[in-house]
Protein backbone atom coordinates (compact mmCIF):
# COMPACT_ATOMS: atom_id res chain seq x y z
CA UNK A 1 0.00 0.00 0.00
CA UNK A 2 1.37 3.37 -0.97
CA UNK A 3 2.02 5.84 1.88
CA UNK A 4 0.07 9.08 1.97
CA UNK A 5 1.96 12.25 1.09
CA UNK A 6 1.03 13.51 4.59
CA UNK A 7 3.55 11.18 6.25
CA UNK A 8 6.68 13.14 7.29
CA UNK A 9 10.12 11.73 6.68
CA UNK A 10 11.96 10.01 9.53
CA UNK A 11 14.49 12.78 10.06
CA UNK A 12 11.71 15.32 10.66
CA UNK A 13 10.00 13.02 13.17
CA UNK A 14 13.32 12.39 14.91
CA UNK A 15 13.91 16.14 15.11
CA UNK A 16 10.45 16.68 16.60
CA UNK A 17 11.18 14.18 19.37
CA UNK A 18 14.48 15.92 20.12
CA UNK A 19 12.77 19.32 20.41
CA UNK A 20 10.23 17.86 22.85
CA UNK A 21 12.93 16.05 24.85
CA UNK A 22 15.35 19.01 25.00
CA UNK A 23 12.69 21.74 25.18
CA UNK A 24 14.50 23.96 22.71
CA UNK A 25 14.74 24.28 18.96
CA UNK A 26 18.34 25.47 19.28
CA UNK A 27 19.47 22.53 21.45
CA UNK A 28 17.68 20.06 19.16
CA UNK A 29 19.32 21.61 16.08
CA UNK A 30 22.74 21.32 17.74
CA UNK A 31 22.10 17.66 18.64
CA UNK A 32 21.26 16.91 14.99
CA UNK A 33 24.21 18.87 13.61
CA UNK A 34 22.12 21.43 11.74
CA UNK A 35 21.44 25.13 12.09
CA UNK A 36 18.46 26.41 14.06
CA UNK A 37 16.86 28.02 10.95
CA UNK A 38 17.18 24.68 9.16
CA UNK A 39 15.55 22.87 12.10
CA UNK A 40 12.71 25.41 12.18
CA UNK A 41 12.19 25.04 8.45
CA UNK A 42 11.97 21.24 8.68
CA UNK A 43 9.39 21.38 11.45
CA UNK A 44 7.31 24.03 9.68
CA UNK A 45 7.23 21.71 6.67
CA UNK A 46 6.20 18.84 8.97
CA UNK A 47 3.32 20.96 10.25
CA UNK A 48 2.34 21.79 6.68
CA UNK A 49 2.25 18.08 5.81
CA UNK A 50 0.13 16.99 8.79
CA UNK A 51 -2.05 20.09 8.64
CA UNK A 52 -1.94 20.98 12.35
CA UNK A 53 0.54 22.81 14.62
CA UNK A 54 2.82 20.40 16.51
CA UNK A 55 4.85 22.90 18.59
CA UNK A 56 4.15 25.96 20.65
CA UNK A 57 7.07 28.37 20.54
CA UNK A 58 7.51 30.58 23.63
CA UNK A 59 10.24 32.75 25.11
CA UNK A 60 11.13 29.80 27.33
CA UNK A 61 11.52 27.34 24.48
CA UNK A 62 9.31 24.95 22.53
CA UNK A 63 6.70 22.51 23.77
CA UNK A 64 4.34 20.15 21.93
CA UNK A 65 0.75 20.94 21.21
CA UNK A 66 -1.86 18.32 21.98
CA UNK A 67 -1.61 17.13 18.36
CA UNK A 68 2.19 17.25 18.60
CA UNK A 69 2.12 14.98 21.65
CA UNK A 70 0.04 12.41 19.77
CA UNK A 71 2.28 12.59 16.69
CA UNK A 72 5.35 12.22 18.93
CA UNK A 73 3.90 9.06 20.50
CA UNK A 74 3.25 7.56 17.07
CA UNK A 75 6.65 8.74 15.85
CA UNK A 76 8.39 6.84 18.67
CA UNK A 77 6.91 3.58 17.39
CA UNK A 78 7.87 4.40 13.81
CA UNK A 79 11.42 5.42 14.71
CA UNK A 80 11.90 2.33 16.88
CA UNK A 81 10.91 0.18 13.91
CA UNK A 82 13.23 2.22 11.64
CA UNK A 83 16.15 1.66 14.02
CA UNK A 84 15.40 -2.06 14.07
CA UNK A 85 15.36 -2.02 10.25
CA UNK A 86 18.66 -0.11 10.23
CA UNK A 87 20.25 -2.60 12.60
CA UNK A 88 19.00 -5.51 10.50
CA UNK A 89 20.40 -3.99 7.32
CA UNK A 90 23.72 -3.39 9.07
CA UNK A 91 23.79 -7.06 10.10
CA UNK A 92 23.11 -8.17 6.52
CA UNK A 93 25.85 -5.88 5.24
CA UNK A 94 28.28 -7.22 7.81
CA UNK A 95 27.44 -10.80 6.85
CA UNK A 96 28.03 -9.94 3.21
CA UNK A 97 31.35 -8.31 4.11
CA UNK A 98 32.47 -11.42 6.02
CA UNK A 99 31.48 -14.02 3.37
CA UNK A 100 32.49 -14.18 -0.27
CA UNK A 101 31.35 -16.65 -2.92
CA UNK A 102 33.81 -16.87 -5.82
CA UNK A 103 33.71 -18.89 -9.04
CA UNK A 104 36.84 -19.33 -11.15
CA UNK A 105 38.00 -21.25 -14.18
CA UNK A 106 40.44 -24.04 -13.49
CA UNK A 107 43.44 -22.10 -14.72
CA UNK A 108 42.65 -19.17 -12.44
CA UNK A 109 41.61 -21.36 -9.51
CA UNK A 110 44.76 -23.48 -9.58
CA UNK A 111 47.47 -21.06 -10.65
CA UNK A 112 46.38 -17.51 -9.70
CA UNK A 113 43.76 -17.64 -6.96
CA UNK A 114 46.02 -19.01 -4.17
CA UNK A 115 48.24 -15.91 -4.37
CA UNK A 116 45.19 -13.61 -4.45
CA UNK A 117 43.75 -15.41 -1.44
CA UNK A 118 46.92 -14.82 0.59
CA UNK A 119 46.77 -11.09 -0.21
CA UNK A 120 43.07 -10.92 0.68
CA UNK A 121 43.74 -12.66 3.99
CA UNK A 122 46.15 -9.88 4.92
CA UNK A 123 43.60 -7.21 3.96
CA UNK A 124 40.49 -8.92 5.39
CA UNK A 125 41.52 -11.79 7.68
CA UNK A 126 38.01 -12.50 8.97
CA UNK A 127 36.45 -13.00 5.52
CA UNK A 128 35.25 -16.56 4.84
CA UNK A 129 35.75 -17.43 1.16
CA UNK A 130 34.07 -20.26 -0.76
CA UNK A 131 35.57 -21.05 -4.19
CA UNK A 132 33.73 -22.91 -6.94
CA UNK A 133 35.96 -24.19 -9.75
CA UNK A 134 34.79 -25.16 -13.23
CA UNK A 135 35.10 -24.19 -16.86
CA UNK A 136 34.38 -20.65 -18.01
CA UNK A 137 30.78 -21.50 -18.96
CA UNK A 138 30.18 -22.93 -15.46
CA UNK A 139 31.63 -19.80 -13.89
CA UNK A 140 29.42 -17.50 -15.98
CA UNK A 141 26.30 -19.46 -14.94
CA UNK A 142 27.27 -19.35 -11.27
CA UNK A 143 27.56 -15.55 -11.36
CA UNK A 144 24.38 -15.06 -13.42
CA UNK A 145 22.40 -17.31 -11.07
CA UNK A 146 23.68 -15.53 -7.95
CA UNK A 147 25.73 -18.47 -6.67
CA UNK A 148 28.89 -16.34 -6.85
CA UNK A 149 29.40 -12.61 -6.35
CA UNK A 150 32.39 -12.49 -8.68
CA UNK A 151 33.85 -14.87 -11.23
CA UNK A 152 37.05 -15.26 -13.20
CA UNK A 153 36.92 -16.60 -16.75
CA UNK A 154 39.10 -17.05 -19.81
CA UNK A 155 38.04 -15.32 -22.99
CA UNK A 156 37.98 -12.15 -25.08
CA UNK A 157 34.61 -10.90 -23.80
CA UNK A 158 32.02 -11.40 -21.08
CA UNK A 159 28.92 -13.53 -21.71
CA UNK A 160 25.58 -11.72 -22.02
CA UNK A 161 24.31 -10.38 -18.71
CA UNK A 162 27.77 -9.92 -17.23
CA UNK A 163 30.21 -7.06 -17.20
CA UNK A 164 33.92 -7.71 -17.11
CA UNK A 165 37.38 -6.26 -16.64
CA UNK A 166 40.70 -7.62 -17.83
CA UNK A 167 42.77 -8.83 -14.86
CA UNK A 168 45.60 -10.83 -16.50
CA UNK A 169 46.87 -12.27 -19.76
CA UNK A 170 47.73 -15.86 -20.44
CA UNK A 171 49.24 -17.88 -23.26
CA UNK A 172 48.26 -21.31 -24.55
CA UNK A 173 50.93 -23.82 -25.54
CA UNK A 174 51.04 -27.16 -27.29
CA UNK A 175 52.69 -29.85 -25.16
CA UNK A 176 53.84 -33.36 -26.02
CA UNK A 177 55.71 -36.21 -24.35
CA UNK A 178 59.53 -36.13 -24.70
CA UNK A 179 59.32 -39.12 -27.07
CA UNK A 180 56.80 -37.52 -29.44
CA UNK A 181 58.16 -36.51 -32.88
CA UNK A 182 57.17 -32.89 -32.25
CA UNK A 183 59.35 -32.76 -29.12
CA UNK A 184 62.48 -32.46 -31.30
CA UNK A 185 61.03 -29.80 -33.59
CA UNK A 186 61.95 -26.12 -33.31
CA UNK A 187 58.42 -25.32 -34.50
CA UNK A 188 55.31 -26.96 -35.92
CA UNK A 189 53.11 -25.49 -38.60
CA UNK A 190 49.58 -24.22 -38.34
CA UNK A 191 48.43 -26.91 -40.79
CA UNK A 192 50.02 -29.63 -38.64
CA UNK A 193 48.31 -28.52 -35.45
CA UNK A 194 45.00 -27.95 -37.24
CA UNK A 195 45.11 -31.41 -38.82
CA UNK A 196 46.01 -33.31 -35.65
CA UNK A 197 43.42 -34.54 -33.14
CA UNK A 198 44.39 -33.15 -29.73
CA UNK A 199 43.81 -33.88 -26.06
CA UNK A 200 41.43 -31.07 -25.10
CA UNK A 201 39.29 -29.73 -22.31
CA UNK A 202 35.54 -30.25 -22.53
CA UNK A 203 33.23 -27.98 -24.51
CA UNK A 204 32.66 -24.72 -22.59
CA UNK A 205 36.24 -24.53 -21.38
CA UNK A 206 37.92 -21.19 -21.92
CA UNK A 207 41.15 -22.94 -22.97
CA UNK A 208 39.42 -24.93 -25.67
CA UNK A 209 37.32 -22.00 -26.87
CA UNK A 210 40.35 -19.69 -27.10
CA UNK A 211 42.38 -22.27 -29.05
CA UNK A 212 39.59 -23.05 -31.49
CA UNK A 213 38.89 -19.36 -32.09
CA UNK A 214 42.59 -18.69 -32.76
CA UNK A 215 42.82 -21.47 -35.36
CA UNK A 216 39.48 -20.62 -36.99
CA UNK A 217 40.59 -17.00 -37.39
CA UNK A 218 43.49 -18.24 -39.53
CA UNK A 219 41.68 -21.16 -41.18
CA UNK A 220 38.00 -20.31 -41.75
CA UNK A 221 35.90 -23.43 -42.05
CA UNK A 222 38.30 -25.52 -39.98
CA UNK A 223 36.55 -28.30 -38.06
CA UNK A 224 38.25 -29.18 -34.75
CA UNK A 225 38.75 -32.84 -33.84
CA UNK A 226 39.42 -33.92 -30.28
CA UNK A 227 41.51 -37.01 -29.63
CA UNK A 228 40.40 -37.05 -26.00
CA UNK A 229 38.23 -34.74 -23.90
CA UNK A 230 39.09 -34.35 -20.22
CA UNK A 231 37.68 -31.97 -17.61
CA UNK A 232 40.89 -31.66 -15.60
CA UNK A 233 44.10 -29.88 -16.58
CA UNK A 234 46.04 -32.33 -14.42
CA UNK A 235 44.54 -35.29 -16.31
CA UNK A 236 45.36 -33.64 -19.65
CA UNK A 237 48.99 -33.12 -18.64
CA UNK A 238 49.32 -36.72 -17.50
CA UNK A 239 47.79 -38.04 -20.72
CA UNK A 240 50.13 -35.93 -22.83
CA UNK A 241 53.18 -36.89 -20.76
CA UNK A 242 52.31 -40.59 -21.14
CA UNK A 243 52.35 -40.27 -24.93
CA UNK A 244 48.62 -40.36 -25.68
CA UNK A 245 48.99 -37.33 -27.95
CA UNK A 246 49.54 -33.57 -28.12
CA UNK A 247 47.55 -31.31 -25.81
CA UNK A 248 46.76 -27.60 -25.56
CA UNK A 249 46.99 -26.07 -22.09
CA UNK A 250 47.77 -22.81 -20.31
CA UNK A 251 51.47 -22.01 -20.13
CA UNK A 252 50.98 -21.33 -16.42
CA UNK A 253 49.87 -24.90 -15.84
CA UNK A 254 52.98 -26.60 -17.28
CA UNK A 255 55.83 -24.47 -15.95
CA UNK A 256 57.00 -27.23 -13.59
CA UNK A 257 56.68 -30.00 -16.19
CA UNK A 258 58.58 -28.04 -18.84
CA UNK A 259 61.34 -27.23 -16.33
CA UNK A 260 61.57 -30.91 -15.35
CA UNK A 261 61.52 -32.09 -18.97
CA UNK A 262 58.50 -34.37 -18.55
CA UNK A 263 56.71 -32.34 -21.22
CA UNK A 264 58.01 -30.49 -24.28
CA UNK A 265 56.40 -27.45 -25.91
CA UNK A 266 57.15 -26.87 -29.59
CA UNK A 267 55.96 -23.41 -30.73
CA UNK A 268 53.30 -23.17 -33.43
CA UNK A 269 54.46 -21.00 -36.32
CA UNK A 270 52.20 -18.11 -37.32
CA UNK A 271 49.57 -18.75 -34.63
CA UNK A 272 48.90 -16.28 -31.81
CA UNK A 273 47.74 -18.17 -28.73
CA UNK A 274 47.49 -15.34 -26.19
CA UNK A 275 44.25 -14.88 -24.31
CA UNK A 276 42.62 -12.66 -21.70
CA UNK A 277 41.65 -13.62 -18.16
CA UNK A 278 38.69 -11.59 -16.93
CA UNK A 279 36.81 -10.82 -13.75
CA UNK A 280 33.03 -10.91 -14.26
CA UNK A 281 30.01 -9.86 -12.22
CA UNK A 282 26.33 -9.13 -12.98
CA UNK A 283 25.73 -6.27 -15.41
CA UNK A 284 24.46 -3.12 -13.73
CA UNK A 285 25.86 -4.02 -10.33
CA UNK A 286 28.86 -2.58 -8.50
CA UNK A 287 31.37 -4.73 -6.68
CA UNK A 288 31.43 -4.05 -2.94
CA UNK A 289 33.16 -5.38 0.16
CA UNK A 290 35.41 -8.46 -0.22
CA UNK A 291 34.43 -8.92 -3.88
CA UNK A 292 35.73 -5.43 -4.67
CA UNK A 293 38.88 -6.11 -2.63
CA UNK A 294 39.51 -9.40 -4.46
CA UNK A 295 39.05 -7.74 -7.84
CA UNK A 296 41.54 -5.00 -6.90
CA UNK A 297 44.10 -7.62 -5.86
CA UNK A 298 43.59 -9.63 -9.06
CA UNK A 299 43.83 -6.55 -11.28
CA UNK A 300 47.29 -5.69 -9.95
CA UNK A 301 48.70 -8.57 -11.98
CA UNK A 302 47.71 -7.16 -15.39
What does this structure look like?
The chain is an alpha/beta fold and 302 residues long. The chain has 2 domains: 87 residues, Winged helix-like DNA-binding domain superfamily/Winged helix DNA-binding domain (Arc Repressor Mutant, subunit A, Orthogonal Bundle); 201 residues, 3-Layer(aba) Sandwich (D-Maltodextrin-Binding Protein, domain 2). 46% of the residues lie in helices and 21% in strands. The protein has 12 helices and 10 strands. A 6-stranded mixed beta sheet has the order 4-3-5-10-6-9, with helices on both faces. The longest helix has 33 residues. It is rod-shaped, with a radius of gyration of 32 Å. The mean pLDDT is 89.
Quick synopsis:
The chain is an alpha/beta fold.
How many angstroms does the end-to-end distance come to? 51 Å
Structural class: alpha/beta
Please identify, by name, the CATH architecture of the largest domain.
3-Layer(aba) Sandwich
Please give the radius of gyration in angstroms: 32 Å
Inertia-based shape? rod-shaped
Number of domains: 2
- Which residues form runs of ≥5 with pLDDT under 50? none
Number of strands: 10
CATH domain class of the largest domain: Alpha Beta
Q: Give the biggest sheet.
A: 6 strands, mixed
List the strand order in the largest sheet. Answer: 4-3-5-10-6-9
Mean pLDDT: 89
Order of helices and strands: HHHEEHEHHEHEEHEHEHEHEH
CATH topology of the largest domain: D-Maltodextrin-Binding Protein, domain 2
Number of helices: 12
Q: Percent range for helical residues? A: 40-55%
Please indicate the percent range of residues in DSSP E strands (runs of 2 or more). Answer: 15-25%
Amino acid sequence: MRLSSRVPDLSALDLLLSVIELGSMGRAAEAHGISQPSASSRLRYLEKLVGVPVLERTTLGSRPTEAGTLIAEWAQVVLAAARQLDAGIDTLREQRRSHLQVAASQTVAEYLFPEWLMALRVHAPSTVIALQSGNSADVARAVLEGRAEIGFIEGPRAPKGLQSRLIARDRLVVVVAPGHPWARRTAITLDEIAGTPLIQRESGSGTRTAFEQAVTARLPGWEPRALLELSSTTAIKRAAASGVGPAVVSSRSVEAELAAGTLKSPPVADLELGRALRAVWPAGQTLTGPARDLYAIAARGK
